[in-house]
Amino acid sequence: METKIWVVDNIEDKSQFYPQISQAAELLRANEIVAFPTETVYGLGANATDTAAVEKIFMAKGRPSDNPLIVHIAQLQQLEEIATDIPAFAYKLMERFWPGPLTLVLKTKGKISEKVTAGLPTVAVRMPNHPVALALIQECRLPIAAPSANLSGRPSPTTAKHVYDDLNGRIAGIVDGGETGVGVESTVLDCTEEIPVILRPGGVTKEEIEQVIGKVRIDAALEDKTATPKSPGMKYTHYAPKSPVIIIEGSRTFLQHLVDEQRKNGMKVGILTTEENKDFYQADVVLPCGRREDLHTVAAHLYQVLRHFDETDVELIYSESFPVEGIGSAIMNRLKKAAGYQVIREK
Ligand code: AMP
Ligand code: MG
Q1: Ligand 2 center to 48 CA (angstroms)
Q2: More confident residue, 221 or 86
Q3: Which of 54, 131, 187, 221 could form a disulfide with 202, with the two C-beta atoms 3.0–4.6 Å apart?
Q4: What positions does the entry give for ATP binding (predicted)?
């Protein structure tokens, strides 16, 4: 299949990108799959009401079929067509965080394909905060199911090139709107319980949600990898570069010592660090990932840096760790998955 590419030079100027968007929307209406930018990562979209269209996503990504997809909408009115029994606190959250990186899990009305919800009684919905994504969804007048536009297991794409590298020839098109902003996926919040539960930490933090609606819980599976997650997708290894990643909890000296030991054994070792610490280390490849003093910059670059290691010949990657608060929770969740939960702690 030939993958069409539409380049949007100025994402703020709808009149300029409208012709490209309308071609992409036409393909979505014809039940083809198209990748597009959102404020978190690139999404791979399909008509969420059509099972054959949604099946194409699972095929292209190699995604396990028990892992449900998030439905993307552009207007509140679309929400009430697909979800029911929406609690008052969910409306408060929408008012504060939509459009934005917060996904709400609500009771489904059954209009969305069962392939999207993996047969669950619930549907996950969000309104993305990206002018291109919103214009595209509006133009095709459909709820759009869209997981991240990468091959299953690989780091999520934050540029159109990442999408191209993984999916060229497997999808109908890519709308290239430049680099995404947040860099990690949306927060997934289960709103079907009396006290809502964070199933996946992401772009909106627990602290920010609690400021609006008070206490929320965190799914036990996020802290204990032996527990069964309520969000089926969280059980899969994810976000991983080709070489193993190990997270180091300890000082820079401790990390450097581990690297030195491995290099003595002839291993080629990479280090994932930050701008503040990059000059401290010696290794085969040292890649800074944003600035420690602003963890949002770490989130924004994380997947890009994980992918960058694949272009080097390192055989092992040691990563610094980050504080598990604010956006740091999402960063550490993704890093731990990329590392298959391998952590070495300094004694
Ligand atoms: P992705 O589309 O790759 O960003 O992943 C979507 C995430 O949302 C996965 O972790 C899914 O398991 C989760 N998800 C989607 N729909 C539901 C649902 N109805 N209930 C719980 N989790 C969901
Ligand atoms: Mg994904």
Answers
A1: 17
A2: 86
A3: 187
A4: 63, 67, 148, 156, 200, 239
Report the candidate in 289, 334, 313, 241 with the shortest Cα–Cα distance to residue 281: 289
Question: How many domains does one find in the chain?
Answer: 2
For the entire predicted model, the pTM comes to 0.95
CA distances from 198 to 44, 209, 219 (A): 23, 10, 6
How many helices (H) and strands (E) the chain has is answered by 11, 17
Burial class (CB in 10 A: 0-12, 13-18, 19+), 284: middle
186 annotated to bind ligand = yes
Q: Give me 48's structure tokens.
A: 């969420």
> Which ligand ends up closest to the CA of 236?
1
**Ligand 1: nearest atom to the Cα of 124:** 16
Distance (Å, rounded) from C-alpha 112 to C-alpha 118? Answer: 11
Domain boundary at 158, 192, 227, which? Answer: 227
Q: Residue range 291-309: average pLDDT?
A: 97
Which one of 54, 63, 69 would you pick to mutate in the ligand 1 pocket, going by the greatest count of ligand atoms within 8 A of its CB? 69
Token digits for 288? Answer: 């800074």
**Per mean pLDDT, which range of 6-10, 39-43, 81-85, 278-282 is the poorest?**
6-10
Q: Which amino acid is present at 147? A: P
Cβ neighbors of 253 (< 8 A, separation 6 or more) are: none
Enclosing domain of residue 285:
245-345
CATH number at residue 276: 3.40.50.11030
Q: Render pLDDT for 65-96 as a digit per residue (tens, 0 to 9).
A: 889 999 999 999 999 999 999 999 999 999 99
